[in-house]
Amino acid sequence: MKENLLVSQLKSLRELEPSDNWVSFTKERIFAGEPEPMGLRMGLMSFFPVFKYKLALAPIISVLVLIGLFGFTQDTIPGDFLFSVKKMTENAQVTFSSSIEKPKTQLKLANKRLEELSRIAQNNQVGNLDPAIKEFQSNIAQATKDLAAFNINVTSSDPSVIRELLAETQKMMANKEKVESVLGAIIGDTNELDSAILQIEKQTAAYLIADLERRTLAESDLQLLDQAREDFNAGNFATSLEKIWILSNK
Amino acid sequence: MSNSRKIYSQVYDKYVKKIYRFVLLKVSSAEIAEDLTSEVFMRGWQSFKANSDKIENLQAFLYQIARNLLADHYRQEVKAQFVSVEYAPPLPDDKQDLEAISFIQSDMERVKAALVNINDDYREVIVWYYLDELKVPEIAKILQKSEPTVRVLIHRALHALKSELK
Predict the structure, then answer these.
(1) Residue contact B5–A11, C-beta within 8 A
(2) What percent of chain A has pLDDT over 70?
(3) Is 0.90 surpassed by the pTM of this model?
(4) CA-to-CA distance for A35 and A43, rounded, in angstroms?
């Protein structure tokens, strides 16, 4: 027999195959008793071994409901049923702020209350007016308290934070005036806050003037620094600071 | 574990027919071939899930299990030949014999029968080289022999098969 013929006859033996039924049955038998590959469902079951699958979904659903609730409460105003939930998130915001950021956060919240007061006035929601004013006063009082506790020993890392704090204060004062003119009434005493802010302005300006005096400045900048020093000596700390910010940003 | 199972499942699909044929061409009984092939993959799975990282070549690993099982099977068969005549299968009658002869007349059956009769090493290399189309280096790995030795073995195996078919 020729080799080619023999090889082709050998290759015809490839037709020898087991039945498909036997192949699949044997495969099943090999893996019988072995755990199934873990899918999403099995993964959840192993993550919550004590609970059943549906119960394992309960915490996930709860978290989603809470997220939805917090989102929904952002539109509430003082006096509303769900405002307390919104306040909880705001309190958490303040708690997690650093000591230097706390007064700024409180002032931001005070600004928020003023915006809410504007909405209340526009929509004539008389019932919400009193709770909103109380919330605003509470924020101002807390901001004043935080500012009093604020370490006034200004360092090189503080001026930018203080600048934001002063900007927030100015914004709050402007908003307060607007709301008071709409309502025709004084909504809160800010004297203590004003004096606390004044103290911070004074300390910051003094620190920055001393800092600029150590630098080599151009003739025009020296003139601006002189003006800032004059404002400072006259007790106009805010005006002095405005000039100092210009020099500091150069 | 689940990953091992997935990989071994793919290995099973890829090699089950080859291993079955390899066994069948030695034992010449579909039933015995099925039993032994099933045992090959059972043992393979036990080893694979325990030490999958130690198995370098899965094909060689499965063929090696099959060779060991075939050797065990024939050792047991030799012992089983000393059974009482009461348990011996009845002799085939003339009619059945004629049918068997006509069946064996086909080329495929002739080659199959010849393969059963030649040396085990020869039969193995013929199956691997001509049926499963394994390369010489792959066969050398399974047999743990050098490639030139395997080439010589294939040449002699084909020659032995030719002689058997004469």
Answers:
(1) no
(2) 86
(3) no
(4) 13
**What's the burial of B62, exposed, middle or buried (CB within 10 Å: 0-12/13-18/19+)?**
buried
pLDDT for the residue B96: 46
Angle at CA of residue B106, ends B100 and B109, nearest 5°? 70
Residue B119 has pLDDT above 50, yes or no: yes
Burial class of residue A120, CB neighbours in 10 A (0-12, 13-18, 19+): buried
Q: State the Cα–Cα distance between residues B101 and B104, nearest whole angstrom.
A: 5
Mutation for B interface: A5, A30, A40, most B CBs within 10 A: A30
User: Nearest C-alpha of chain A: how many angstroms from B2?
Assistant: 5
Reference A229, options A219, A220, A239; nearest CA is A239
Residue B44 and residue B61 in contact, taking contact as beta carbons nearer than 8 Å:
yes
Contacts of A3 in chain B (CB under 8 A): 158, 162
Shortest CB distance from B111 goes to which of A9, A23, A31?
A9
Which residues between 41 and 70 in chain B have a beta carbon less than 8 angstroms from any beta carbon of chain A? Answer: 41-42, 45
Q: Quote the ipTM score.
A: 0.76
Beta carbons of B108 and A37 less than 8 Å apart: no
CB B126, CB B155: distance < 8 Å: no
| Terminal-to-terminal C-alpha distance of chain B | 53
Is the Cβ of B34 closer than 8 Å to some Cβ of chain A?
A: yes
Which is more confidently placed, A216 or B158? Answer: B158
pLDDT at B85 over 50: no
Two tokens, residue B120: 């085990």
Condensed to tens digits (0 to 9), the pLDDT of residues B9-54 reads: 899 999 999 999 999 888 878 899 999 999 999 999 988 888 877 8
Closest by CA to B22, choosing from B127, B126, B120, is B127
The answer on pLDDT for A245 being more than 60 is yes
Predicted confidence (pLDDT) at residue A51 exceeds the cutoff of 60: no
Name residues 79-138 of chain B within 8 A of A (Cβ).
107-108, 110-112, 115, 126, 130-131
Nearest CA in chain A to B165: A1
